[in-house]
Amino acid sequence: MRFKAFIKENKYIMLTFGIAFAIMIFAFGILKLYPFGDRQIMVIDSWHQYYPFLQELHSKLRSGSSLFYSWNIGGGINFFLIMAYYAMSPLYLLSVFFSQAYLREFMMLITAVKIALAGTFFAIYLRGQFKRNDIFVMLFGLMYAFSAYAMGYYWDIMWLDNMALLPLIVLGFHRVFEERGFLLYTITLALAMISNFYIGYFICEFIIIYAIFTYIKSYSIRDFSTLFGKIFTVAFYSILGMGLAAITVVPTYEGINLAYATASGNPSSIKFYFTFMELFNALLANVPPSIRSGLPNINSGFLALIFMILYFASKSIPLRERIANFGLLIVFFLISTVNYLDFIFHAFHFPNEVPHRFAFMVSFLIISWAYEAFLHWEKLDRSVIWKVVVGLFAYILLTEQLNPDLDYKLVIYSSLILLALYGSVFLLKSDKKISQRVFTIVLTVIVLIQITSSAIVGTETTGSSSRDGYAPKKEDVTDTVSSLYASDTDFYRIEMLKWFSTNDPAVYGYRGISTFSSTANASMSYLNQAFGLAAAPESNRYLYASSTPVVNSIYNIKYLLSRNGWAQESNASYDFYETVGDIDVYQNKYPLSLGFMVNDAISNWSLTAKKPFKTQEEYLSAAVGYPVQIFSPMEPTTAEYTNMTETTNSDTYHTYTLKNSSQVGNVRYVYTIPKTQQTYIYLFTHLTDDVDVTIDGEKETYETRRGLVIDLGVLEAGKEVEVTFEVPKDKNSSFYISAAGFDETAYAEAYATLSDELFQVTKFSDTRIEGTIDVKDNGRFLTSIPYEPGWTATVDGVKATIIPVNSALISLELPVGTHQIVFKYTPAGFTSGAMITLISIIAVVGIALIGKKKKGIPKKRKREKNTEDRDHKEIQENVRDEENEMKDREKESDDDKPQKDSEGDAVEPKPEE
């Protein structure tokens, strides 16, 4: 009986989830995602970042390795921080039930689950806040699930958790505000901060603003006693919720301080992105969601738009409440369009693409108000409905005149059709031309059609990628990596000669250097940029491509993999080692260890931007303690410009202006190799993505907009190297270009000095490195472990002071002798955060128990229980009232119909006596 009662009470909640999930899977099926086709869900950053990090998490969960650190990302990185931004969703724990081969399908299913949960939790919010439990709770829940934010940004899968949690947080907030309990608010707020601290931060801002307007519509500003009481209550339970999440929030705060702060800087003058009319137009029907840029994703369904207008027109809703909520809407419209407010709300940062990351909050407000108006719509004067319908009709026609472009036609016509349908249904129901049952069925069908259309348009606009091509030769690469790790058990790194994705080490599962992450260590980005890797701190990335022996040695890269014959036959950096499947393996000719002794002069080594050959020589000279020259500059034999005038030629730096700004420019450099030698070219062309390098008629294309040292291998004397690239029109800019020969003999001498005192790793795991080193002279022990405060070191059992080199690499001072060194890692702030969380849990349990015993300041749990019982009873009474009202209406409608006899045939009604 209890099960049946539970099903009856929650049938509309469960239907919300089931229908939303089914519609999303249907849309993915139309998109031909596997197993419905040969496509996969990953696009844009989910292709480069979110899936590789999910795969790394999946590997750790299945192997039982530490979640604190990973050597498979960025040379070594705080993986707990990666999780906090990308992969802390509790739902990801379910990935352990999927093999890696089907992890992409898990990502698709979890996306659908998160969207379905958003609708489900919104339905629960409506039921709890408005004490209703009917099919319309389901319909409005589905509107939230398929709002533009979910459809445009579902590829940012880590944001969907907090979109789903927002309704429960607000429901819990109202309970706190009305002194009816605190657990729901505190726990869901904590869960939001844990699931994704970034969007969780926005939710905290939302609660502050929402609380202000909730107070304004409920109490007098001059009632200071109530005002301060509410501030204290909301603040107390908010802090308690933050305390519960401290185990992730504190280490996240510590870790994020190492990331690049902002590439955009502070706003210098006020700017408006959109007019209010443009924002309002974003609410019309069939507006495609923004994927990477464009209007805020605030579209919430056309029915929500109609009833939002009716909400502000309804006299059944107190005027003070309507004014306050209108002010709340204006505030979020202003945040969406004023650059200063946008900057402040986004944590004093301008997002790098994907703007208005808080837009789901606007949809939450709009649909909430629309539902409240829907509850009162039959009390509206019929003329009000007519005015809204006619007014919207006129506005849409006006919009068509102001936006005559073809792309807007679908929006206009869809809006007019839906306005006619919805208007007709509500006017017919108002005139009692249709029964409640017909009204409900028709409205349900229209809403389901519209949200299904939103799902299809959203998925098609977002797109997909090829499943077969991700990642190229993955099975061969993983087999190769497994073979290397089995045969060579030392600690070393592996890299690709040419990257496929920006997170190849995570994709293929090897200890490597490359990474692209919003949490990337900025100091490592600066170091790798100076070394000539494809790095940009402002873009949160550094990517490895076949580089110099200097870079390969310092990073302990022992093996290099080639998927498609990218390696040169003759190269100063590596020799052929073996072939595994279709993968060629090359071995570093000059390997070092994870750590090695260097001269104390390394303390004075500084980075030189955009001059990697100079930076590498200066590093090597400091490391060995004497001047080393390994690169010999080469001058171009030809430097040609088309539609360009060179304005500066300073060593490797060149500026230019376009002769005709309406046309592109072209650059052509030719270098003639003076003698047979290993050759490199460095290019930094930040306005040009790709550069072509041609040798003996064979052309290779390289991405150089973030700078890159290009490895050309050993070239014979007299060969010509042609470098060509195009610069965009309308922009005058600059580029860096330099070529150099490499003196392998000089480097071999320096290498002999460095390799004389190597750290022998005896044992390692994700968070612990143990080993020994025989030090011949007092000096500096330099490692390629990226510096983070979470690392600690002991030398012969005594804690040692870690000295960061260029804020990027860990080093120690070591005296003469043989030493046992142990490195350990725990994310900075984790221990203190865990203590705060433990204290907060004790506080939550204590307050709940005290409330239950009617003691202390917090409200009694008994009162919470009574309130919940009252709410439950009120919901049940509302359901019964609705059922009775529906029966009465149907009876009234049936009185006008021909009556039927027991066989079902129509008969004339008998006259009354």
Tell me what the structure shows.
The protein is of the alpha+beta class and 913 residues long. Helix content is 48%, strand content 19%. The protein is built from 27 helices and 33 strands. Strands 13, 15, 16, 18, 21 and 23 form a 6-stranded antiparallel sheet that branches. The protein has a 5-stranded antiparallel sheet with strand order 14-17-22-19-20, with no helix packed on it. Helix 11 packs antiparallel against helix 26. The radius of gyration is 32 Å and the shape is globular.
Keywords:
alpha+beta, disordered C terminus, five-stranded antiparallel β-sheet, 27 helices, globular, 913 residues
Oligomeric category:
single chain
| Distance between the ends | 48 Å
Structural class: alpha+beta
Point out poorly predicted stretches. Answer: 855-865, 889-913
Largest sheet: 6 strands, antiparallel
- Mean pLDDT score, rounded? 89
Beta-strand percent range = 15-25%
Number of strands: 33
Helix content: 40-55%
Which geometry do the CA atoms define?
globular
Continuous helix count: 27
Estimated radius of gyration: 32 Å
